[in-house]
Amino acid sequence: MPRPVFFSFLLVLLALGSQGHAQTITATLQGVVTDATDAVVPGAVVTVTNTATNAEFATETGVAGRFVAPSLQPGPYRVAVEAEGFKRVERTG
Description:
Blueprint: H1 3-19, E1 27-32, E2 45-50, E3 56-60, E4 66-72, E5 77-82, E6 89-92
Antiparallel strand pairs: 1-4, 2-3, 2-5, 5-6
């Protein structure tokens, strides 16, 4: 095989090889935890549970009450929020 053709063929193989990685579908759930007066709740524990697999992701809200649950697999979820001085809140669906 002539050298320029071999080099081009090698480049094509390398390009195709980098495209061969499996693609995954994930989602990110993010939000802000607030109380009944719409004040943010820092330090609240947010637990996101896939109800089909029982896989859990837990995180804590920051000073602005924000949380992020990244790389969630497709499926039905339950979100529970707990904070000191507050009643536990849970939402499904």
